[in-house]
Design brief:
Blueprint: E1 16-20, H1 50-62, E2 67-71, H2 81-89, E3 96-101, H3 110-115, E4 120-124, H4 130-137, H5 142-154, E5 160-166, H6 175-184, E6 188-193, H7 210-217, E7 223-225, E8 236-240, E9 246-250, E10 263-266, E11 271-273, E12 282-283, H8 285-289, H9 294-306, H10 326-329
Parallel strand pairs: 1-2, 1-10, 2-3, 3-4, 4-5, 5-6, 6-9
Antiparallel strand pairs: 7-8, 8-9, 10-11, 11-12
Bound molecules: S-adenosylmethionine.
S-adenosylmethionine binds next to strand 3, strand 5 and helix 10.
């Protein structure tokens, strides 16, 4: 049977599924988890099993999903993740599988990640200073993250993209040093506006919007804009003249990219979420555990797509719309 494609009422073709495989994390980043985490953790039974996730992804692929990003929480803390990645790699029709990680467990598991067929990594990196790393994430793991990054580079993972949440008074004095890495390495350094969602506790004053981020790194040289291609994510892409890598600016607040959003999200709790910044989601786990047929899962996918909002309502002036936490949704 030929299935319909995932085209929403605003004519966006949804081909990208971000899959959070766990809400657990081995860091407690200040912008993601509150310090004395009051986040209710999902129980083992509440989290989708790998075979359930794979079933959902196979349905998604029949409906036109071609790109998967595995995320979390921290995906590498979930037991069995490397076997799961290998199974994912066997699904015909997926042309792009990537992994988002904080890098803490990277160094010792790169071979398993590569052997599962993953070539592209996204790594969170908010500072190059070990003391500050500890302050931002709660743990003294900077050197192992950095060793993991160098080892991934040596093993030929490419591109390696970095996510830096730009925060005034926290790491804004380092944005230039972080951007400078794009001269030394072929890395893609991406700066993200802090999104005040979930149980956020950071003062609104930390917000640093894209024009200011660009102004902070501009002294490094001439920034040349790179034309977008069809499969590009949300980042506005640039390159410093003479640099090996790229700069990306992700501006969920100051310049909504909803009109070209091609994503759905599968949360660790088995909910299909059409928009990161809107709490509406469709339950897949319940029907799966009641033994539903694949047709029902197709129906739920189409329902989620039908309700993908035209645009989200979170912006710098009105930040408090989203209550779910990033670690459960999957950033
Ligand atoms: N643990 C993995 C990691 O650290 O990359 C994957 C999950 S993490 C939630 C994914 C990304 O979400 C991170 O790169 C982080 O920068 C971003 N993120 C989390 N909370 C954010 C917030 N409030 N504003 C902007 N970005 C955020």
């Amino acid at each position: 049977m030929k299935h319909p494609q995932l085209i929403d009422p605003f004519n966006r073709n949804l081909t990208y599924l971000r899959v959070s495989i766990t809400d657990r994390c081995n860091l407690r980043c200040m912008y993601c988890a509150p310090p004395r985490a009051m986040i209710p953790r999902l129980t083992h039974a509440q989290v989708l099993r790998y075979e359930e996730i794979l079933r959902i992804i196979r349905i998604g692929v029949q409906l036109g999903i071609t790109k998967i990003r595995v995320t979390g929480g921290e995906p590498l803390v979930r037991k069995g993740v490397y076997g799961f990645l290998a199974e994912l790699g066997k699904i015909a029709g997926l042309t792009d599988i990537s992994l988002t990680t904080n890098g803490v467990l990277l160094r010792d598991h790169l071979a398993e990640i590569r052997d599962a067929g993953i070539k592209r990594l996204n790594i969170s990196l908010d500072t190059l200073d070990p003391e500050r790393f500890k302050r931002i994430t709660g743990y003294d793991y900077f050197s192992r993250v950095w060793e993991g990054i160098e080892a991934a580079h040596d093993m030929g993972f490419s591109p390696i993209k970095f996510n830096t949440v730009a925060m005034r008074g926290v790491n804004d004095d380092e944005l230039m040093s972080i951007a400078r890495l794009s001269f030394t390495y072929p890395f893609h350094m991406r700066f993200i506006e802090y999104m005040p969602i979930g149980n956020h506790h950071l003062d609104k004053k930390v917000q640093l919007l894209a024009p200011e981020i660009l102004a902070r790194i501009q002294p490094l040289g001439d920034l040349v804009r790179i034309e977008r291609t069809r499969n590009d994510g949300p980042a506005e892409r640039y390159r410093f003249k003479g640099a090996r890598g790229e700069i990306g600016i992700i501006q969920p607040l100051s310049n909504h990219f909803c009109h070209r959003c091609n994503r759905l999200r599968l949360t660790a709790a088995g909910q299909l979420r059409p928009c990161l910044l809107s709490d509406r989601q469709e339950d897949l786990k319940g029907p799966i555990r009641k033994g539903c047929l694949d047709e029902e899962l197709v129906r739920i996918f189409l329902q989620a797509v039908r309700f993908k909002p035209m645009e989200h309502r979170v912006d710098a002036a009105q930040p408090e719309e989203v209550h779910d936490v990033m670690s459960t949704i999957g950033g």
